[in-house]
Amino acid sequence: MTGILVRMTDHRTTTRPGTVYVAQRRLAIGMTLGVLAGVVWTVSMICTLVSWAL
Q1: Which sign does the torsion angle of CA 37, 24, 26, 13 carry?
Q2: How many CA atoms lie within 13 A of 39 on its CB side?
Q3: pLDDT digits 0-9 by tens, 8-24
Q4: What's the chain's Rg over C-alpha atoms?
Q5: Which of 1, 19, 17 is nearest to 9 (CA)?
Q6: pTM for this model (two decimals)
């Protein structure tokens, strides 16, 4: 059994660490843009409510 497992793990491809960092960077950029969009939406809603109140 261990011989089969050793052969199976020998053929596994190595993962490149660079792809993880690119994915993390894209996630961080996406989250930042999402937060900025939320802030812009919130400010616009506040401005709309203020203009309705006047």
Answers
A1: negative
A2: 6
A3: 555 566 655 566 788 89
A4: 25
A5: 1
A6: 0.58
